[in-house]
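Case study 2.
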Amino acid sequence: MKFRTLGILLVLVVMAVFLIINWTTLSQVTMVNLVYTEIQAPLGVLVVCGFSVIILLLGIYTIWQQASVLIELRSAYKEARRAHQLAEEADKSRLIEATKEMKSRFEHLEAVLTGRSDESMQVLRERLDVLEKQLGKQAEENRAEREAAKAEIFAELKAVQKRLSDTLPAPAEEVADEKKKKEVFGELF
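Prediction:
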């Protein structure tokens, strides 16, 4: 219980004890002036009844106030719950919307990157083709130069060999072999 409620209960208990102890004095009949008339009644009982009615009315008023506050709190709670649900739904829809936006941006970015990658690959292929053609031409030129150099070297070697064979006497065996070849092949051709 709250401290205020305990205080009120303590005051009521003390008043009840006071009334019980002094009941004989409070219940004596006396002349009571009610402004417009006079009556004979126990003054203590009238005062106690008046205070009891006032306390009863204050209790009813307090209960009524608390009931109205509870009703308002309940309606405010329902409204807050509705607002919370609407806020959650709005957050969910914003999250879904943000997710869709992110997906679309990622797809756009992917498309841009794919396009640029394809363009880069195309440029690389073109450059590779140009380089392959240049390398092929260079290889042909190198091959032709090698063939020419080879032919030149063979020509020089033949010339050197001819000069050597012209300047040096042929061995006797070769001459005999040459004659045999000419005789054998000469008959065939």
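The two ends are 143 Å apart (CA to CA).
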